[in-house]
Amino acid sequence: MLNVVVIGGGFGGLKFLQRARSSKIQFTLIDKQNHHLFQPLLYQVATAVLSPANIAFPIRRMFKNFKNVKVILDEATDINREEKTVTISNGEKIKYDQLVVSTGSKHSYFGNDDWSEYSNGLKGINDALQIRERLLRAFEKAENEKDIDKRNKYLNFVVVGGGPTGVEMAGSIAEIAYKNMKEEFRNFKSSDANVYLIEATEKILPMYSERLSGKAEKYLVDFGVEVRTNEKVIKIENDLVVTDKESIQTDNVIWAAGNEASPIIKKLKTKTDSEGRAIVDPDCSIKEDGNVFVIGDAANYKDKNNNSLPGIAPVAIQQGKYLAKIIKNKILKQDRKPFRYYDKGMMATVGRYKAIGKIGKIEVSGFIAWLFWSAIHILYLIGYRSKILVVIEWIFSYLFNKKGTRLIYREPT
Fold this sequence. Notes:
The chain has 413 residues and is of the alpha/beta class. 30% of the residues lie in helices and 25% in strands. The chain has helices at 11-20, 42-46, 59-62, 125-144, 148-155, 164-180, 210-223, 313-328, 366-380, 384-399; strands at 3-7, 26-31, 35-37, 56-58, 69-73, 76-80, 85-88, 93-95, 98-101, 105-107, 156-160, 194-198, 225-228, 233-237, 240-243, 247-249, 252-255, 259-261, 278-279, 285-286, 289-294, 299-300, 346-351, 354-359, 362-365. The strands form eight sheets. The protein has a six-stranded mixed beta sheet with strand order 5-2-1-9-21-20, with no helix packed on it. Strands 13-12-11-17 form a four-stranded parallel beta sheet. It is globular, with a radius of gyration of 22 Å.
């Protein structure tokens, strides 16, 4: 029986298994988490709109009725293409006939890894919970601080990076600071808070048109966010963010400016780009081996115009479907039709009732875009229970201005 090993239970890896699992193939899924995480809504966990259980689904439950799918909770640490083995952290080697690598990406500080000590990225549930508690604790510290300068440090929130994650985080933090916590504190006013979004390039959300990017910036400004474009962060240290224009005293820095591929890609010994992504052939396999595939954020796939596909969920999902057909039908490399990505549009939320998006050639913004954004995210969530719970939480949050329970339950680190 053909043995297929899948590294990573993200959008690409899971969609591949969901489409291929009914075949007479033995599958082994390796993931260091026991759940699939719906990352597009992770920022809502970080800002106390949703709980982790709303956007995470147990992987084993998805495949409990498929005896040919084995799930291993562990981390892949090495890949040997000559031996056709994947080594996991306990030293065990797992044999494969074909390999699918869908490991996603991690934070990149562009060579300034020491900045991670003073900032938080947003990639997993632990990241979201750390950000949430740090945000909530900042308000409590400000409430107990009599020194105005020190108090301001706790009430300054800096988001670095004007991509979708940075924009979503900035808008949500502003909503917490200026609306949800209004009149809850006695030592300061909600207007004392400052939310900064810093972007090194000339506009936020650079993947969108000038018009939509401008709309998003206007929405953020209306929410109370200070948007700073053409401003580069040059240093992050304890209680301080230094840009090429100013220094900001802050105890709250969220990093959303850069990503790089998982280190396991280096073990493939194939050509990579500047972000560490494997440069793959038209069939999503690496040049050196037609039985090793890389998809999603871990891959640099060039479209027919020689542009790299974006690292977004729809790309990974479509690549997973594409690979399922190849592997189920045992199509040889020379007979494989190239993968083609069908761009159904992009959407980004900015804050309460505000979003921007492009559907085909049509650009939408404002409340209509927000409705589209909401419907699409509900559609892609795994599990009816998760869909219902998220809808309920959104009703309370957006219609009644009641955020989720803002609990601080862990000791500060």
